[in-house]
Write a structure and sequence with these properties.
Layout: E1 2-5, H1 15-19, E2 24-27, E3 31-34, H2 43-52, E4 58-64, E5 69-71
Antiparallel strand pairs: 1-4, 2-3, 4-5
């Protein structure tokens, strides 16, 4: 899995932080940081976090097999 967050779209609502705090973090009031390639066991939390984003700033790509090719 690869995560991409549109930081221009992100408004710092932090719903992702509440739902997947191992992957998303707020530094200060609005500076979001995140792990772009979380472990597979985090997938359900990351998917819920992406769905809960009020501005839909989180995009998830699934990586196919060992070659690392992405599918959306």
């Amino acid at each position: 899995m690869r995560i991409v967050v549109d930081l221009n779209r992100c408004q710092g609502y932090a719903q992702c932080v509440y739902l997947a705090h191992e992957t998303f973090r707020l530094n200060g009031q609005e500076a979001l940081t995140y792990e772009p390639n979380p472990d597979d066991e985090r997938v359900p939390h990351v998917e819920r976090a992406a769905a809960a984003c009020p501005v839909q700033a989180i995009m998830i790509e699934r990586l196919d097999g060992a070659d690392g090719s992405a599918t959306s």
